[in-house]
Amino acid sequence: MREGLKNFEGKRKRFRAYFVRFGTKKGYKGLERTILLKYVEDVSTNRLVAEHLWFNLTKGFAALDLKEGDQVEFDARVKRYVKGYKGYREDVWKPLELDYKLSHPTKLRKLTYSHS
């Protein structure tokens, strides 16, 4: 569980993280593009709140033209969700558990630029 986010449930805060890579996930309309951010920290305290987080590739993130290692800042709301396997297959077992995520990222800003 992301304990660093637990105390801020429902609140909107400013965060800073490093861009790692793009990815995809299965969605309602087929494959959806995602991004992976690591070392997510609360800007007000400089405390690590999550080792990594996945986000949908929103227009805001896409406009930043992110490269591996770029640092980004953004505002987001802390939300609770249930993770784990919710299907019916007998050969898959991943218990359901409560965790926290960041949603609705806004005011995105790229802070550093990678040297490629």
Structure write-up:
- With 116 residues, the chain is mostly beta strands.
- It has one domain: OB fold (Dihydrolipoamide Acetyltransferase, E2P).
- The protein is built from 2 helices and 5 strands.
- The chain has a 5-stranded antiparallel sheet with strand order 3-2-1-4-5.
- The mean pLDDT is 90.
Biggest sheet architecture: 5 strands, antiparallel
Distance between the termini: 35 Å
Mean pLDDT equals: 90
Number of helices: 2
SSE arrangement:
Elements: H1 3-6, E1 12-27, E2 30-42, E3 47-56, H2 59-63, E4 71-83, E5 97-110
Antiparallel strand pairs: 1-2, 1-4, 2-3, 4-5
Summarize the structure.
This protein is mainly beta and 116 residues long.
Highlighted features:
116 residues; mainly beta; OB fold (Dihydrolipoamide Acetyltransferase, E2P); 5-stranded antiparallel β-sheet; 2 helices
